[in-house]
Amino acid sequence: MDFKKVVRTVFFIEILKGMALTLKTLFTRPVTLRYPEVPRQPKPGFRGLHALVREADGRERCIACGLCAAICPSQCISIHTGEAPDGRKVAERYEIEVLRCTFCAFCVEACPVGAVVLTEHFEYANYSRDDFWMTKEKLLQNWDTFMAGEKGREYLKRFWLPKATAFGGYEGQAVFRPKGKKEAAGA
């Protein structure tokens, strides 16, 4: 047996190091929160409960194109379309089964008009499956409850950005050119 190992064994060096670490962290501030007594504030852009965007005049923004239902990997969105008196296509029924949703936000990204959003609300536990079946009226109510006003406008501005500037290049960026074609000097 090595001398250092004997000294460590006799004087309980490893145990003393462990006790020192315990005493050091005993009086520090905890890094965890006591949820639900201390509510946690979700970060902007959090993927929580679904909502359908309501315009300022009270109409829903959805144009019933069906892209959100088509791209949904869990197939939890169903849309039944109809025609409004003015000839527009409208969603007569728009339903989301929240318990099947994976919160991937593909529906949000696929929507061409930004009508589907994921709110920051995450505390919606319940005992009944029916409460997780979101109808069009419930989804519009979610918008009114969690995203109405400036908060909704800020969400759509920051997190729903299918604008060309988001996918643009920058000066000096390497670009693909077909073989044999060289850029003219000085051009």
What strand order characterises the main sheet?
2-3-5
Quaternary structure of the protein: single chain
Q: Largest beta sheet, briefly?
A: 3 strands, antiparallel
- The coarse silhouette is extended
Q: What is the string of SSEs from the N terminus onward?
A: HHEHEEHEEHH
What's the Cα radius of gyration? 28 Å
Helix content: 25-40%
Name the beta content range: 5-15%
**Overall strand count:** 5
User: What is the number of helices?
Assistant: 6
Mean pLDDT metric: 86
First and last CA, distance: 78 Å
Low-confidence stretches: none
Computed structural class: alpha+beta
How would you describe this structure in keywords?
6 helices, two-stranded antiparallel sheet, alpha+beta, extended, 187 residues, three-stranded antiparallel beta sheet
